[in-house]
Amino acid sequence: MNSRFLFFIITSLLLAQINYAQNMGVDTTITDTTDTVLQEDANTTMEDNTNDVEMAPSNNEENSESSPSFHQILKTKFIEGGAGFMGIVLLTLILGLALCIERILYLHAAGSTNNEELLTSIEDALKKGGVEKAKEICKKTRGPVASIFYQGLERSNNGIDAVEKSIISYGSVQMGLLERGTTWISLFIALAPMLGFMGTVIGMIGAFDAIEAAGDISPSLVAGGIKVALLTTVFGLIVAIILQVFYNYIVSKIDDIVNKMEDASIALVDILANNK
Q1: How many domains does the chain have?
Q2: What does the alpha-carbon distance between residue 201 and residue 229 come to, in Å, rounded to a whole number?
Q3: Is the C-alpha dihedral spanning 61, 64, 66, 72 positive or negative?
Q4: Is residue 59 assigned to a domain?
Q5: Is pLDDT above 60 for 38?
Q6: Is-contact 96 181, C-beta < 8 A?
Q7: 118 has a pLDDT exceeding 80
């Protein structure tokens, strides 16, 4: 009885060890297989990342080569708009900018005079050397204020009323010189978008003529004609905006110089009245 019981226990232990060994073998095989698959996936991912890194510079180079510059885009759109009206609008821009630059340089030179120092010099000259010495100082000084002072001093012997009339009259002359050319700038500001609109209308007429000749309404044909027609309007508006900015700056500069001229003229009349 005891021998059978021992035999049964020994047999059970042997079977348990065999099952455990088989299970461990399967688990080991599965683990090895899983590790192999994971390693292969990791290697594949690393290869893909390497390929992406290698392809990135080439893609960036292709994008940099394919993206045109602003100058190329502007040139392309200018050619697409047609050389006729686009050339006329460009001519208005060139002429308008030339006038703006000329006015800005002239106004900068006209407003560079220090009116307070000039008034002080004239007052000292009137006290020491009289009107003639004050006139010499005005001759040597550039700017509209010095010219107005010279005309006032020329008529200082005729009384303060004559001096005031002379200053007012010659001040109008100097103001006209300051505003010279601004009417042409305003003309180009108004003319540029008008030419652009005219080019658009003519381009639309050409687009409808092309539709009539084709016999059907093709979306690509209509879109192409309208795009070309609208380019002249866009370019005309851009020209008008650029010239308008310069024009407003010039007008503000003229107003500033005129205000300084008026203040200096009043100060000159007071100096002459005190030295009588």
Answers
A1: 1
A2: 7
A3: negative
A4: no
A5: no
A6: no
A7: yes
